[in-house]
Amino acid sequence: AMSKWREEVIEPGLRVQYKVERTLGSTVSKFQHVDLVDLEPFGRSLVIDGLMQSCRSDEFVYHECLVHPAMLLHPNPKSVYIGGGGEGSTAREVLRHKTVERCVMVDIDEDVVGFCRTHLEENHAAFADKRLELVIDDAKAWLERSDSKFDVIIMDLDDPLEGGPCYQLYTTEFYSMLKTKMNPGATLVTQSGQSGIKQHHLVFSPINCTLRSVFPNVVPYNQAVYSFMDEWGWNLALTE
Predict the structure, then answer these.
(1) CA Rg, the chain, in Å?
(2) How does pLDDT run across 66-97, given as a tens digit for each residue?
(3) Are 169 and 178 in contact (CB under 8 A)?
(4) Predicted pLDDT of residue 49
(5) Which of 42, 85, 192, 213 could share a disulfide with 233, CB 3.0–4.6 Å?
(6) Are 123 and 97 in contact (CB under 8 A)?
(7) How far is CA 28 from CA 32, 34, 47, 111, 114, in A?
(8) CB–CB of 165/158 below 8 Å?
(9) Can you tell me the mean pLDDT for 16-45?
(10) Catalytic residue among 156, 158, 159, 230
């Protein structure tokens, strides 16, 4: 039998192919198409709209980089907000911190959250943790309506491609609103897309500039994530 290969565009003129051992499940929500596949190089992998989302072999690299710097920079993080994070891995890393009393995770896609909750064994404990409040809603709308304030805010959303569903979550207006939802001394972190030598100008650098117009202290950082075939970036903002 012919092996099945799936192809992904890394940048214009550069594509990579992964060998698929088997497809374990798929679901189509009103927002996106999700597949759970076993890939020969990366093991169990979550693919959303044909793009690599996370692989068991190295998702911890992405999620630890996203969560722990912001958590550790806060002396006593009790309340945490996660925007997006449907697969549950971000919440898993947050809930490792014993100081956390309340972790609110708001993801718009109930089907994807349910799919991940069922299929990703490594996140079962996080989804069952009584400190986790899982809300199916728009991450921005929920925060705007809420009178809660948080010690740490973690934005784990898709890249802000012009006109895409997450575009308005990366604007000066949005970050200014976030600032009003932060307790004194709070930290904010956002995933910031590819940060390698060629692609950083698309998302990583613009997010850094936008955050610097709102917050006094912004720290960009990056790390190679092997299954993403590039360096990945995050931006951390401090209120003081």
Answers:
(1) 17
(2) 999 999 999 999 999 999 998 999 999 999 99
(3) no
(4) 87
(5) 192
(6) no
(7) 6, 6, 12, 8, 12
(8) yes
(9) 93
(10) 156
Q: In terms of residue numbers, what domain contains 40?
A: 5-55
Do residues 32 and 129 both lie within one domain? no
Instruction: List pLDDT tens digits, range 196-228.
Output: 999 898 889 999 999 999 999 999 999 999 998
Residue in the structure block whose two tokens are 């994530």: 225
Catalytic residue status for 156: yes
What is 68-92 written as a DSSP string? HHHHHHSSS--EEEEEE-TTSHHHH
CB 203 within 8 A of CB 194: yes
Give the Cα separation of 63 and 58 in Å (integer): 9
92 & 126 share domain: yes
CATH label of the domain that carries residue 20? 2.30.140.10
Write out pLDDT tens, residues 143-201. Answer: 999 999 999 999 998 766 555 555 566 789 999 999 999 999 999 999 999 999 998 98
Can you read off the two tokens belonging to residue 143? 């925060």
